[in-house]
Design a protein that fits this description.
By secondary structure, the chain is mainly α. 64% of the residues lie in helices and 0% in strands.
Length: 146
């Protein structure tokens, strides 16, 4: 979690620079948790471009995100005004070799409330994958979706 703390107190670029230095060390071995921490920290610091560069590096090293990483990147894109990028990550998640988990779906379902067409698409997938789970649909008046 070192990257998270560094990111909170700096521009996030310091964490990225530290990671690049670590990668050059002889002892460095690709580690999904190191990538995950850095991606999550960058997403929380509104550094989505940098987070996606690291995301690409991670997949280049044949490491794959887990449900929390997907959820945080999706949340980052939703928070900072890019539902289409969140949906791109969602589509990538659906193609993942690991079975889907509930967390990223829930993040998307909540974040897409102002975007009913996108939300309905995710809701359909959720209901197919998790038929025993319930989805809360707030009254439309809350979001002015009349």
């Amino acid at each position: 979690m070192i990257f998270f703390n560094v990111c909170l107190y700096s521009t996030g670029l310091i964490a990225l620079q530290m990671f690049r230095i670590i990668q050059k060390e002889d002892w460095y071995k690709p580690d999904v948790f190191m990538y995950k921490d850095l991606i999550v920290a960058l997403a929380k610091c509104k550094k989505m471009d940098e987070a996606m560069v690291i995301w690409g590096n991670m997949t280049d090293e044949n490491l794959f995100p887990d449900a929390q990483t997907y959820a945080e990147v999706i949340r980052g894109f939703l928070r900072y005004g890019s539902p289409s990028d969140a949906m791109n990550i969602y589509e990538e998640m659906k193609k993942s070799p690991d079975p889907p988990e509930e967390l990223p779906f829930r993040v998307l379902l909540k974040g897409l409330l102002p975007h009913p067409l996108l939300r309905n698409r995710v809701k359909q997938d959720f209901e197919e994958l998790f038929p025993e789970r319930h989805i809360y649909d707030p009254p439309e008046e809350i979001f002015g979706l009349r």
